[in-house]
Amino acid sequence: MSHADQKPKKIEITIPKDESRKKKPILYIILVILLIGGSSILAKFNIDLNVKVSDLENQETTEIVIDSSKIELSTNQEIKTELETEEGEIEVLSMPVVESVDGGELQIEEEDLDFGRGEYYPFDTPQTFRDATLGKCIDLDGKYGSQCVDLANAFWKEYTNRWLSTCGTGMARGIWDCKEQNASVEFKLIYNANEIQTGDWLIFDGGQYGHVGMALGNAHDGYVALLGENQGGTSCVGGGSATNIINMSLKTFRGAFRPNIYDTPKAPDTSIPKPE
After folding, report:
1. Does residue 108 share a domain with residue 200?
2. CA distance linking residue 212 with residue 204, whole number of Å
3. Which secondary-structure segment (H or E) carries 14?
4. I need a labelling partner for 199 at 20 to 30 A (CA). Which of 82, 152, 212, 271 fits?
5. pTM for this model (two decimals)
């Protein structure tokens, strides 16, 4: 199908009114630049840019809607993203700071999935899986384009040789409802957001459908570097958006799956003397 045959993708960006602009000048300037300079670029990808102005004076987020995916950007884009390297060092980057992601369309029922779809994605470390998938449009179920559950399924397929279950909901948030089944013997279940480590697969409640992605660092000040699909990356031809990295708020965190191959105990804090 050519771009001309596709329905335009709709993007809605909510920006502050005059009162809020004074309080959030940097964010407003960035959005204006995107709106003015990005329209011609977006048009090439058959994307219809629809701007809505609303009163955000008492709100803390700026909402972006791409197709059926809804992303709430934090108004504090100065929060740094901490990624862990393969050497265990912390790399500090500037990534989009996101308060919540509503993943959009439903996943096709598990029994209808074609296990033969997709290419091989190495997973020996979280970083190799990141490098193999970053920027790619992965659509394993062949429905609704590149959704967040597709990326998670790509990992589960390689690591466990089975598909994720959403407990019949078709939603990312439903993955946690079947947590014991999805974890089986290959994962450890994590309930505390403060215990998140690199390589954990996080489940979020945001919006109607929720979201899922892989942590690329430890939790830091209520946020975590998150590798995921359909969270604001490059638009994919079949729908959804390509794998990217965001700095994700943990306020809608439900729980996490830690692959046993990544379960490395944290080193004890030697800065605190032991009692005699």
Report:
1. yes
2. 6
3. strand 9-15
4. 271
5. 0.74
